[in-house]
């Protein structure tokens, strides 16, 4: 029924005010999505590393989480003032004490109550049940504030320590001012400047004895400060950190904190996270699915981090301080992040991704190599492959131009022609690399052969099949960028090398199998051979996972397997194939292969694209089935809700994409393959002012199968769409139902 304003007898201004109020509520309603972010998700690893409840601003330098084993641990050993690098160390330890200062105080652990702990991306609070102390923290970009509330009539002290067992120093300038240095990773000084809210009596611990000295320098340097009684028992430490100089630490303090208090900094942090999290709005789905989705989205902002300070930054790639008006980002593990993490950022914040790619180019300038695992101290040689090459190609083909693509290509070419491909090694090539570049495969040792190449890591081994497959993809990326840049001869060379994966395909075993340096097959059990993690031939996973590591040439892989139907049958069998032994025996050798379904391992990055491969067969509905099952089984919204090593957003970016209903199956190709959205509507606010929408009518836990599809109102009968369609603000509309439509998605 339609009423006029007059008929309703509602004053116009009152109605107008009400409408404005509703509009305001609608605009602010996205803030509610922050309630779905739960930092505890995945805080207990099934076998591997747990996620850490990192409190920070999105992609910013200051990160904090309480030092403890995992969520099951009911004691905290200390609170770091900064997590320097994801799982690679922290600096400057602080903890409160209610007892008179003694040497034993630094060894004491702090018991807490899980149910009294508050962990939000921008705010942390815990209650230390034995000491009756409340600890609070809120982060800035290069700064942070700790607040401690002590019980009445208790001693009020703060104990300071170092984490890295290297050289460091503490110095009290006055009753409420402190400066410190901690040497990270052997030669990188981290500088601290801080101010306490109260004047106190300070000192040091030297030779296990309490001293009133105001300065200490050396290994394991420890300091303390005690405060007299005050009205509310609260003590604050406002501080700033720098990788450049003590003076810069103080300048960072003055820039961010001089006139900013705890509540204001906390409010700014909440606003920053609200802007990030609410860029994606969802409707429908269960409360658990929303918690899993938004908690995963939060995780993708832990890394990379901007370490620029006042238009300058310290680089571990040449151990120098550089001037730059662009952010410099570190802390990335491209073996994990090239698959979904970088592609997600290209959609949500392409300008930031350009700055990250520009940082990669700067690292090449400074070190002579394009990095693989760029962290504060340089390129952390880890895993295998030069997947930063794929990341450059993916960004370039999705329209990113604000970095030197010619220099990036130069570095990619150098890595592909001069660098060693050996896992966990940086630097020039060796004799094994020459075999790959001449014979087209990386050679493995036979079971009874001893290693003769000194450069090979004694634990990580050669990983010969994994290196060959990864190298083929990386070479494809170099070749494709060469083509885009008009370098015809390079394209010819690298497009041929992109097919090297075929040299290790055994039609007899229906598997990628190792060869020795002479090109002879090495007979192995691809389920179980290869030592710890199968590293002699594969890497962290067995041959059943690496059977599918050809994202860049899926049609070629289908051909090797004998066509679409056999490809589909092999995919089916992957999820049904028995381990061939007990789980404890299998996991004793393959602890990274967690989240198993048959031989499929949801808990490791090389598996992410595999369930989407059904979209390249005549059964796309099986992708819909598998994705929904995997999300539901392995990514619950609880402390066990991440099946493997989450890698600071590397894994949870998969959850973000898959929950929205699409996935970048081949980074380097500007297109997406379609899965099964868990929500009825997804809206992404794009930086260009447009909205990309996925509408999945009637989607539910049961209605997971696509019945029909449209893109921008036109019938879509292929399970794919392009990046250009996405950034143009397109709308993918799906009709969902409880049973598969086996004819959908079979168009050309």
UniProtKB/TrEMBL annotation:
InterPro entries given in the database record: 6-hairpin_glycosidase_sf (IPR008928), GH-type_carb-bd (IPR014718), GH92_a_mannosidase_put (IPR005887), GH92_N (IPR041371), Glyco_hydro_92 (IPR012939), PNGase (IPR050883)
Q: Which GO terms describe its molecular function?
A: carbohydrate binding; peptide-N4-(N-acetyl-beta-glucosaminyl)asparagine amidase activity
Enumerate the Gene Ontology biological process terms. Answer: carbohydrate metabolic process; glycoprotein catabolic process
Where do the Glycosyl hydrolase family 92 N-terminal domain residues begin and end? 36-242
Q: Which residues form a coiled coil?
A: none
Q: Where is the Glycosyl hydrolase family domain?
A: 248-738
Entry keyword set: Calcium, Hydrolase
GO cellular component terms given for this protein: cytosol
The cofactors required by this protein are: Ca(2+)
> PANTHER family, from UniProt?
PEPTIDE N-GLYCANASE PNGASE -RELATED, PUTATIVE-RELATED
| Subunit (UniProt) | Monomer.
* Protein name as catalogued: Glycoside hydrolase family 92 protein
**Organism of this sequence:** Dyadobacter frigoris
């Amino acid at each position: 029924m339609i009423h006029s304003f007059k008929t309703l007898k509602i004053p116009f201004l009152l109605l107008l005010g009400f409408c404005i109020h509703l509009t305001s509520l609608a605009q602010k309603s996205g803030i509610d999505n922050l309630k779905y972010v739960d930092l505890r998700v995945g805080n207990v690893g099934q076998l591997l590393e747990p996620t850490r409840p990192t409190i920070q601003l999105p992609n910013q330098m200051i990160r904090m989480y309480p030092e403890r084993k995992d969520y099951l641990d009911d004691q905290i050993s200390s609170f770091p003032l900064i997590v320097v690098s994801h799982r690679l160390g922290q600096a400057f330890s602080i903890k409160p004490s209610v007892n008179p200062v003694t040497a034993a105080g630094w060894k004491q652990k702090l018991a807490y109550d899980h149910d009294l702990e508050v962990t939000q991306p921008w705010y942390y609070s815990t209650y230390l049940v034995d000491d009756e102390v409340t600890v609070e923290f809120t982060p800035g970009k290069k700064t942070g504030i700790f607040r401690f509330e002590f019980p009445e009539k208790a001693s009020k002290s703060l104990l300071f320590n170092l984490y890295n067992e290297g050289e460091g120093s503490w110095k009290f300038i006055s009753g409420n001012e402190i400066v410190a240095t901690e040497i990270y990773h052997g030669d990188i000084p981290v500088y601290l400047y801080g101010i306490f809210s109260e004047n106190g009596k300070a000192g040091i611990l030297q030779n296990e004895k309490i001293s009133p000295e105001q300065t200490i320098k050396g290994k394991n340097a420890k300091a303390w400060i005690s405060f007299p009684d005050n009205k509310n028992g609260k003590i604050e430490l406002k501080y700033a950190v720098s990788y450049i100089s003590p003076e810069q630490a103080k300048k960072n303090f003055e820039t961010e904190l001089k006139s900013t208090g705890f509540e204001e900094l906390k409010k700014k942090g909440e606003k920053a996270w609200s802007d990030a999290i609410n860029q994606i709005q969802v409707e429908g789905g269960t409360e658990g699915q929303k918690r899993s989705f938004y908690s995963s989205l939060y995780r993708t902002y832990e890394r990379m981090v901007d370490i620029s300070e006042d238009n300058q930054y310290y680089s571990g790639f040449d151990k120098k301080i550089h001037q730059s008006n662009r952010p410099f980002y570190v802390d990335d593990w491209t073996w994990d992040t090239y698959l979904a993490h970088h592609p997600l950022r290209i959609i949500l914040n392409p300008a930031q991704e350009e700055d990250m790619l520009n940082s990669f180019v700067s690292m090449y300038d400074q070190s002579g190599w394009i990095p693989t695992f760029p962290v504060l101290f340089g390129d952390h040689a880890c895993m295998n492959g030069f997947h930063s090459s794929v990341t450059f190609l993916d960004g370039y083909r999705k329209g990113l131009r604000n970095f030197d693509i010619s220099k990036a290509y130069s570095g990619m070419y150098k890595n592909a022609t001069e660098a060693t491909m050996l896992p966990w090694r940086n630097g020039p090539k060796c004799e094994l690399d020459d075999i790959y570049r001449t014979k087209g495969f990386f050679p493995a040792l036979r079971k009874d052969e001893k290693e003769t190449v000194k450069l090979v890591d004694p634990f990580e081994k050669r990983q010969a099949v994994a290196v060959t497959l990864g190298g083929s993809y990386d070479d494809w990326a170099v070749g494709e960028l060469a083509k885009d840049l008009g370098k015809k001869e390079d394209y010819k060379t690298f497009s041929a090398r992109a097919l090297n994966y075929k040299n290790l395909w055994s039609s007899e075993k229906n598997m990628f199998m190792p060869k020795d340096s002479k090109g002879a097959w090495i007979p192995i059990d691809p389920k179980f051979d290869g030592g710890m993690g199968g590293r002699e031939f594969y890497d962290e996973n067995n041959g059943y996972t690496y059977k599918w590591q050809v994202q860049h040439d899926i049609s070629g892989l289908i051909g090797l397997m004998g066509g679409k139907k056999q490809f589909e049958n092999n995919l089916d069998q992957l999820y049904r194939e028995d381990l061939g032994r007990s789980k404890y025996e299998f996991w004793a050798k393959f602890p990274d292969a967690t989240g198993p379904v048959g031989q499929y391992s949801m808990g490791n990055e090389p598996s992410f694209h595999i369930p989407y491969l059904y979209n390249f067969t005549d059964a796309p509905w099986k992708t819909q089935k598998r994705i929904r099952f995997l999300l539901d089984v392995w990514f619950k919204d609880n402390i066990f809700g991440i099946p493997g090593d989450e890698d600071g957003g590397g894994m949870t970016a998969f959850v973000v994409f898959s929950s929205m209903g699409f996935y970048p199956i081949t980074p380097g190709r500007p297109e997406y393959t379609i899965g099964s959205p868990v929500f009825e509507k997804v809206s992404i606010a794009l930086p260009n002012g447009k909205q990309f929408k996925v509408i999945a009518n009637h989607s539910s836990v049961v209605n997971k199968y696509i019945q029909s599809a449209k893109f921008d109102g036109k019938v879509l009968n292929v399970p794919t769409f392009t990046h250009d369609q996405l950034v143009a603000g397109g709308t993918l509309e799906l009709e969902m139902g409880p049973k598969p439509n086996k004819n959908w998605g079979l168009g050309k």
